[in-house]
């Protein structure tokens, strides 16, 4: 019998180990998932109430100990565990709980009410039963879960939402409460350093149209919030934030017209922009959307947006932005999917641009390209002083391009003082008035 087997065979397990705060039994402890351990301990093993960190891959019991109170527990990770439930509903003192990771615990049938776990940030589980979530959760992983039609109402400002392959999922909605404990975080300067927002609904083909609209609307809310926060960080080097981005995907073969007014039936389009009629300068930002079939994807991908801008004086500028997406986020996407993307290179100084053209590409690191079947863009402006968003876009049929483009005029609701934004490796958010060397390049 190993030393670990001997420990588990004791009646009180870990309970009598003084000052035990941290248990980490990783992959090697899968060896102890055997009948002898369970036979010695019944349905569980004892843990001290002082425990703060519990990581046990292959946890072999049906639940946590019935006499265990998780009042001090901050992190719970039980990958590939055999439990059917965690603890009973009597234990509601969960204020210290921050992370619950129950990856591939396929026997799990019940999880306690988490609405009072007010500091919970991240939850990963595979459940059939509905969840009750606290409003301040920022990461939710429900991938491959056999969900019965609907998710609980989700907080608007999730950093990470993974519902991939939830094939029965029909309804998705987000809270409409204007007060959110993380609203100031998302619109302020104290947000986390890495800001990668992912909303993954690949292969969720049962989603109804209202759910698609909810996902798109919430994605645009996140984009506006990111843009406001990034611009507020004046004087911060982009080198620290340049890989931050938003990525959203869901099944579909149409660019959502309710948000992306400019659309094309292929990979490119032209549009006209109403010039800035105010004395102050403004910031121009855009989010892109495209439709593609990535079924055969086997590598990480780059979503590339090339654009050209023409000023009222006839000057032409060109630049491009790129969002790199790991294979883990897009693997096994079957058939057409809609992708929405945004990063800091999609915020530029508006130098009285009146025309723009866009080309969208998808390629892997080997240089292989994937066909962009349809694409679109949402353009909005920002007040450089108040950081408010102007997204006033109206149909103007007279400005439609030939072929398949649908073009709208953009009207400005706000003006503001200059704020320097330098796209590219050297871009900074500062108070200067000059365009950075990394911005759109003049075309000779």
From TrEMBL:
Residues 404-444 are annotated as: Disordered. This is C-JID domain-containing protein. Gene3D superfamilies: Ribonuclease Inhibitor (3.80.10.10). Residues 250-383 form the C-JID domain. InterPro entries: C-JID, Disease_R_plants, LRR_dom_sf. It comes from the Eukaryota. It holds the Pfam family C-JID. One of its GO terms (biological process) is defense response. The keyword Signal does not apply. Keywords: Leucine-rich repeat, Repeat. It comes from Hibiscus syriacus. Transmembrane segments: none annotated.
């Amino acid at each position: 019998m190993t030393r670990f087997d001997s420990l588990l065979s004791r009646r009180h397990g870990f309970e009598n180990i003084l000052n035990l705060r941290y248990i980490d039994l990783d992959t090697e402890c899968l060896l102890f998932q055997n009948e002898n351990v369970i036979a010695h301990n019944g349905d569980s093993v004892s843990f001290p109430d002082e425990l703060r960190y519990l990581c046990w891959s292959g946890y072999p019991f049906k639940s946590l100990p019935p006499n265990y109170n998780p009042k001090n527990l901050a992190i719970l990770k039980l990958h590939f565990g055999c439990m059917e439930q965690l603890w009973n509903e009597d234990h509601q003192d969960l204020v210290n709980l921050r992370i619950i990771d129950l990856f591939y615990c396929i026997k799990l049938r019940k999880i306690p009410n988490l609405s009072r776990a007010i500091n919970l940030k991240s939850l990963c589980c595979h459940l059939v039963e509905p969840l009750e979530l606290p409003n301040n959760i920022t990461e939710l992983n429900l991938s491959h879960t056999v969900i019965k039609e609907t998710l609980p109402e989700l907080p608007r400002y999730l950093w990470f939402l993974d519902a991939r392959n939830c094939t029965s999922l029909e309804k998705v909605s987000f809270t409409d409460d204007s007060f959110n404990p993380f609203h100031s975080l998302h619109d302020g300067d104290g947000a986390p350093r890495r800001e990668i927002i992912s909303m993954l609904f690949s292969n969720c083909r049962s989603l109804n149209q209202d759910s698609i609209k909810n996902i798109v609307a919430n994605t645009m809310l996140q984009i506006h919030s990111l843009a406001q926060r990034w611009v507020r960080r004046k004087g911060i080097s982009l080198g620290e934030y340049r890989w931050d981005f938003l990525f959203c995907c869901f099944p579909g073969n149409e660019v959502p017209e309710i948000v992306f007014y400019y659309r094309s039936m292929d990979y490119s389009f032209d549009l006209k922009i109403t010039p800035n009629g105010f004395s102050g300068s403004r910031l121009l930002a855009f989010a892109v959307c495209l439709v593609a079939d990535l079924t055969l994807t086997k590598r990480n991908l780059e979503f590339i947006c090339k654009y050209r801008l023409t000023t009222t004086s006839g000057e032409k500028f060109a630049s491009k932005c790129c969002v790199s997406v790991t294979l883990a986020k897009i693997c096994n996407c079957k058939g057409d999917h809609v992708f929405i993307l945004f990063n800091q290179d999609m915020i530029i100084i508006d130098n009285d641009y009146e025309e723009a053209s866009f080309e969208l590409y998808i390629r892997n690191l080997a240089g292989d390209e994937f066909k962009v079947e349809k694409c679109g863009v949402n353009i909005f402006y920002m007040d450089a002083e108040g950081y408010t968003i102007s997204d006033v876009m109206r149909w103007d049929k007279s400005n439609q391009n030939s072929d398949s483009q649908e073009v709208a005029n953009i009207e400005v609701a706000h003006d503001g003082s200059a704020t320097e934004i330098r796209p590219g490796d050297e871009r900074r958010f500062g108070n200067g008035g000059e365009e950075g060397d990394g911005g759109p390049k003049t075309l000779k």
